[in-house]
């Protein structure tokens, strides 16, 4: 029965834990818009919605092997996790830069259009009214050209689709597989463990993912202190 319980823990840990923790970091790393990260986050649910009925029908037919369906689903989830990590190896090293937007110019525009006091906007934006240069973060925005990496959103979206499609046999056929192969007395125990792991997984994912965010993106090739 652990054949279904352990994958449930892993998929909830990855999809509902790790990905939710790192989604904002991925957005900054690859220059994605909020609409794009929203598409990535919804990919899992889209694939699950499309696959639940076919998987339940074909996997539940007489003579169909439920463990085989679940096993193929776990393999698809592994492929999805690989695709999700692929953009990190396809792009160059991460170069942290400051924002390219000059907030002091924005403050001047707001002053001219709204009539707000210069002192209030200066205090709000952290700019020097005399020079017009940002004082926040101690310097000018970076002028280096940033590489457009937003095309990686399709890798993340495809990975989420694979994760959702691979998880659909686990949450449908997995329950009936447990119920059919244990005694009525122990069935409720195994199902309780099964659903408990689906709750423990995201909690563990948030805790572990939060600790992993303390490491620099290219920690093996770049000295984060410099």
Number of strands: 0
Radius of gyration: 24 Å
Q: What characteristic shape results from the CA principal axes? A: elongated
The computed structural class is mainly alpha
Strand share of the residues? Answer: under 5%
In whole angstroms, the N-to-C terminal distance is 50 Å
Count of helical stretches = 7
Structure commentary:
It contains seven helices and no strands. The chain is an all-alpha fold. It has one domain. Helix 1 runs parallel beside helix 7 and helix 4 runs antiparallel to helix 5. About 8% of the residues have low confidence.
Index terms:
single chain, mainly alpha, 7 helices, elongated, 226 residues
What's this entry about, in short?
With 226 residues, the protein is mainly α.
Which helices and strands, and how do they pair?
Blueprint: H1 2-29, H2 34-59, H3 66-90, H4 103-114, H5 118-125, H6 153-181, H7 184-212
